[in-house]
Design goal:
Cobalamin-independent methionine synthase MetE C-terminal/archaeal domain-containing protein; alpha/beta; 6-stranded parallel beta sheet; zinc; TIM Barrel
Length: 346
């Protein structure tokens, strides 16, 4: 399919779910009760994406308290001095007092998360998880020579998760590195860790790099030129980047940097509640087509939708799907009419 539409990962968290998540971290409800609530929320998020017409859906990352703790808190060798939180979305302070044990099997439960999602939709699924570089930035104390070594150790844990995900049927995995833009000088370290995660795991791999999306605000600003040339060594099939908020000026960076693989084109600004017009989306896609061929483009929001009201997220996705359909129809019509034109000329 030309210009498939998808999401980056997260889905809006309703206020009632925020309250229940916080209740769990304050010890007011059990893990089993929270799990039942998560199941219901994920099924609703899948239905919302399907109704909007999204081609490749996600679980909305609704089981996760935030983009870091869901992974670090489950990782053997990581210590949480306090297991409670005032608010579910807060970050834990974690330490790694000794080198992380090298896992023989998956330990984080991500394959089970995927299996639940697979059982409740017939559409292709993108399953995302936070990358080793970003996770390493949130460890307060560790025994490694530097954070690059810590990131490589975390990458080994995530590699086992990736194997388990592939064995359970996952075909499209995405590594999110939301902290990378804040440390552009360490891009080589990040790519080295990413390659440990993906090593010999036979799925389609995406790498998402944004400028942060904490409470719908960017954490950093800049341009994607910092990715090059190091990102060319990343053994991934697709770069998933934000262009909706920042505009198109970074698109030439991809071509100039030599990126000849797929691009997840961010066309929806997730930090603005204003809903884009389908025409706006179509225009952004057409501008990208001047530099990236259609068969290498997927269409997605800039980042996760967690901090938007659900009504806004649904409307934004519907506009994205409609805008992509307009451009797809134009491309398909042009391809279909070409043989007729040639025949008439002969």
């Amino acid at each position: 399919m030309l210009l498939p539409t998808t999401v980056v990962g997260s889905w809006p968290v309703p206020e009632w779910l925020e309250r229940l998540k916080t209740d769990y971290y304050r010890g007011r409800i059990s893990r089993s009760q929270l799990g039942d609530v998560h199941d219901m929320a994920i099924k609703a998020a899948l239905k919302d994406q399907e109704l909007a017409g999204v081609d490749i859906v996600s679980d909305g990352e609704l089981r996760r308290d935030n983009d870091v703790d869901y992974f670090l808190a489950r990782m053997p060798g990581v210590v949480l001095p306090l297991s409670v939180k005032e608010f579910y979305f807060d970050y834990h302070t974690v330490t790694v007092p000794a080198p992380l044990p090298a896992p023989d099997t998956a330990v984080l439960g991500l394959a089970d998360d995927y299996a639940f999602t697979r059982a409740h939709t017939d559409r292709p699924i993108k399953f995302s998880f936070t990358g080793p570089f970003s996770l390493a930035q949130r460890v307060a104390d560790h025994p490694y020579a530097d954070r690059a070594e810590l990131a490589r150790a975390i990458a080994g844990v995530l590699h086992r998760e990736a194997i388990a995900l592939a064995e359970r049927g996952a075909t499209h995995l995405q590594i999110d590195e939301p902290f990378l833009a804040g440390h552009p000088q360490r891009i080589t370290d990040a790519i080295e860790a990413v390659n440990i995660v993906v090593n010999e795991v036979g799925v389609r791999w995406g790498l998402h790099v944004c400028y942060g999306n904490r409470y719908a605000r960017p954490s950093w600003e800049g341009h994607y030129d910092f990715l090059f040339p190091a990102v060319l060594d990343a053994r991934v099939h697709e770069l998933v980047l934000e262009f909706g908020r920042k505009g198109d000026e970074d698109l030439p960076v991809l071509a100039g940097g030599g990126w000849d693989r797929d691009v997840g084109l961010g066309v929806i600004d997730v930090k603005d509640a204003a809903v884009e017009l389908p025409l706006t989306v179509a225009t952004r896609i057409r501008r990208a087509l001047e530099l990236v061929p259609a068969h290498r483009l997927a269409i997605n929001p800039d980042c996760g939708l967690r901090h938007l009201p659900a009504t806004v997220a649904r409307s934004k996705l519907a506009a994205m799907v409609e805008g992509a359909a307009v451009v797809r129809e134009t491309l398909t019509s042009a391809t279909t009419s070409e043989p007729a034109t040639v025949a008439a000329a002969s």
